[in-house]
């Protein structure tokens, strides 16, 4: 199995004028292709920071992060945007769909930044929405959808570029247990299809559904 | 990410906040509307005056008291020293080259039966007046003869407005009217010449020169018209006239102007007017731009999460920059389009009362300027949006 994410001695220190805070301490972590990982930790444990670094939204203070066996240090802003676009799919706790924009257009958004033609975008977005069982909601706006449906649109948006890595930050945090279970079903299905998934959660019963659990406490892996 | 796409999503964002967007572009709308309208009025004014003067004939020279474009204004501080003997003197010396005609003017009240016409321009002119001023066209009757002028006959030729005010559709010729207390017989009526800003060139009556001089006790002339018999002599006649006049009056006390000189003076005046009025209107465009900048900054703050999300899913800083810049330009462009429509519309409405002309350059200039304002005042908010840290943006509540 090839390695998708390899973190070596990752440190992240936040510095304000007087206080400095070490959010991550010497993190070593390897994630293979096809793994379904749950990152569990209390709030302030550093799990979000870890997620941001893996998602290339933030840079480590020191250490090396290799994505698909390529170092991500020294990449400029535009290149990082391109990698986020092509290799990483994000799912957020609060869905982050664009209001007043149809489900189809929301899902097609990453395709637009990838420079794909409008006609083709529509086809690809439709397929992604089919994958999450929302073929009947293409023209619906977010405010016409339930929380679970909105999160499924968000998952479709994360999948539409066929990324190597799916990053989910508390994907069930804003949902009731029924909708949460539906989302977990989708993740498990995607896992079976071979997707690499990293999911942050603080709920043990959600974490247990993943293949492997990583616990983080005070910026260190347990 | 192409511009058309961005423009479409910009329109969506603008239409999502209809009232806010409308209020934002109002400054631009008012600016563009007023630029177009003011330029239309000034250009119309210039066209009207130019036509009026050109209608007088290209061979015409005007001797007037004072100087045009000189240190002293015509008929201003300087006392009017132009008298009838100057006209006679010119006529004697230029007889083979030009026709000379003196004119005086007073405002007075006309009465016919119980009808009263106030503020009528009473012109005292010589019998050769219609030969010189080609714009004077008789519709009915005739102009007075030299014999009538010499014998102080009280005869009148009336303008179109006077005719309408006093006689309506009734008989005109042979009627007796009261001009400033004396009775005159109407012997002719003129065609229309038009009006501007409420000054009606047709609210006028033409009487024999000497009759008016005697009745109103006027010594000084308003104008001596000189019409060169041959067009190629105009310059020569002008020089000679200046020479003749100089023997009696100083250079500050009179001027001999050709139609061309009067036109260029008018064009100078209207250029300054255009610049001044257009400049004032342009200030409101800049104020409108500040409004756009303000609302774009608010929009960037409101949509911080959206910007964070767009960056997370692959938007480059330049994508975000162009999105917000195009939104600002779309806003100001919409304002510009509305302003152009309103400006042309108002010009047409006002055009019913006096001449307005909308030159294409004023539309292009004001619309272009409104777009430019969008670019200039849209840059700062767009840069701010493009520099947002995606993590901070996603966390923003």
Q: Can you walk me through this structure?
A:
Chain A has 222 residues and is α/β, with parallel strands linked by helices. Chain A has one domain (34-52, 80-221): Rossmann fold, CATH 3.40.50. Chain A has helices spanning 47-54, 77-87, 103-113, 118-131, 147-159, 177-192, 204-207, and strands at residues 3-15, 20-32, 36-40, 62-67, 70-71, 88-91, 165-169, 196-201, 212-217, 220-221. In chain A, strands 6-7-8-3-9-10 form a six-stranded mixed β-sheet. In chain A, strands 2-1-4-5 form a four-stranded antiparallel β-sheet, with helices on one face. In chain A, strand 9 (212-217) and strand 10 (220-221) form a beta hairpin. In chain A, helix 3 crosses helix 4, helix 4 crosses helix 5 (147-159) and helix 5 packs parallel to helix 6. Chain A is globular, with a radius of gyration of 17 Å. The model of chain A has no long low-confidence stretch (mean pLDDT 93). Chain B is of the alpha+beta class and 397 residues long. Chain B folds into two domains: 3-51 and 266-395, no CATH class; 103-219, no CATH class. Chain B has 13 helices and twelve strands. Chain B has helices at residues 3-16, 18-54, 84-93, 129-132, 146-150, 160-167, 209-216, 234-246, 259-302, 304-312, 317-350, 360-386, 390-395; strands at 60-65, 98-112, 115-125, 138-141, 155-158, 176-179, 182-190, 195-196, 199-200, 204-208, 223-228, 254-258. In chain B, the strands form two sheets. A six-stranded mixed β-barrel of chain B has the order 2-3-10-5-7-6. In chain B, strands 8-9 form a two-stranded antiparallel sheet. In chain B, strand 8 (195-196) and strand 9 (199-200) form a beta hairpin. The longest helix of chain B has 44 residues, at 259-302. Mean pLDDT of chain B is 87; it is low at 70-76. Chain A binds chain B through residues 52, 55, 57-58, 77-78, 81-82, 84-86, 90, 92, 96, 98, 100-101, 109-110, 112-115, 118, 157, 161, and chain B through 1, 5, 12, 16, 305-306, 308-319, 390-391, 394.
């Amino acid at each position: 199995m090839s390695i998708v994410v390899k973190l070596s001695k990752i440190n992240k220190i936040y510095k304000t004028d007087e206080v400095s805070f070490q959010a991550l301490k010497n993190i070593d972590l390897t994630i293979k292709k096809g793994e379904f990982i749950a990152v569990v930790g209390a709030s302030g444990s550093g799990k979000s920071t870890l997620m941001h670094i893996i998602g290339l939204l933030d840079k480590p203070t020191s250490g090396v992060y290799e994505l698909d066996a390529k170092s991500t240090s020294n990449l400029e802003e535009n290149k990082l945007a391109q990698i986020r676009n092509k290799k990483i799919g994000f799912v957020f706790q609060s869905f982050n769909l664009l209001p007043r924009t149809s489900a189809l257009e929301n899902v097609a958004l990453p395709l637009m930044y990838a420079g794909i033609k409008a006609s083709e975008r529509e086809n690809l977005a439709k397929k992604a929405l089919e994958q999450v069982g929302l073929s009947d909601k293409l023209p619906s706006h977010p405010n016409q959808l339930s929380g679970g449906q909105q999160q499924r649109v968000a998952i479709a948006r994360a999948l539409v570029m066929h990324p190597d890595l799916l990053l989910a930050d508390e994907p069930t945090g804003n949902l009731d247990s029924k909708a949460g279970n539906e989302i977990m079903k989708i993740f498990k299905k995607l896992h079976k299809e071979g997707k690499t998934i990293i999911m942050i959660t603080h709920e043990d019963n959600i974490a247990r559904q993943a293949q492997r659990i990583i616990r983080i406490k005070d910026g260190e892996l347990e | 990410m192409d511009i058309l796409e961005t423009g479409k999503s910009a329109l969506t964002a603008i239409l999502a906040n209809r009232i806010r967007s409308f209020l934002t572009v109002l400054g631009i709308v008012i600016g563009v509307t007023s630029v177009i309208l003011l330029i239309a009025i000034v250009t119309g004014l210039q066209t009207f005056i130019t036509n009026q003067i050109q209608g007088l004939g290209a061979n015409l020279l005007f001797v007037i008291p004072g100087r045009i474009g000189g240190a002293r204004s015509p008929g201003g501080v300087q006392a009017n020293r132009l008298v009838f003997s100057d006209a006679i003197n010119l006529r004697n010396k230029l007889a083979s080259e030009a026709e000379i005609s003196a004119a005086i003017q007073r405002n007075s009240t006309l009465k016919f039966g119980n009808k009263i016409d106030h503020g009528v321009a009473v012109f005292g002119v010589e019998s050769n007046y219609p030969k010189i001023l080609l714009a004077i066209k008789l519709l009915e009757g005739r102009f007075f003869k030299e014999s009538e002028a010499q014998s102080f006959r009280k005869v009148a030729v009336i303008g179109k407005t006077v005719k309408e005010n006093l006689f309506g559709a009734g008989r005109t010729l042979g009627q007796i009217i009261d001009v400033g207390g004396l009775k005159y017989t109407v012997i002719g009526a003129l065609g229309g010449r038009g009006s501007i800003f409420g000054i009606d060139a047709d609210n006028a009556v033409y009487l024999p020169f000497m009759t008016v001089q005697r009745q109103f006790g006027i010594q000084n002339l308003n104008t001596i018209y000189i019409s060169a018999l041959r067009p190629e002599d105009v310059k020569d006649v002008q020089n000679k006239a200046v020479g003749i006049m100089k023997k009696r009056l100083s250079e500050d006390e009179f001027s001999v102007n050709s139609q061309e000189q009067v036109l260029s003076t008018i064009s100078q005046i209207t250029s300054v007017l255009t610049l001044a009025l257009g400049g004032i209107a342009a200030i409101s465009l800049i104020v409108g731009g500040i409004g756009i900048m303000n609302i774009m900054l608010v929009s960037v703050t409101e949509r911080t999460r959206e910007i964070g999300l767009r960056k997370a899913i692959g938007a480059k800083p330049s994508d975000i920059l162009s999105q917000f810049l195009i939104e600002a330009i779309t806003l100001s462009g919409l304002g510009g389009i509305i302003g152009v429509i309103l400006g042309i519309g108002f010009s047409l409405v006002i055009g019913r009362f006096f001449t307005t002309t909308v030159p294409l350059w004023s539309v292009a200039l004001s619309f272009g300027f409104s777009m430019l304002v969008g670019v200039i005042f849209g840059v700062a908010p767009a840069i701010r949006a493009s520099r947002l840290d995606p993590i901070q943006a996603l966390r923003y509540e």
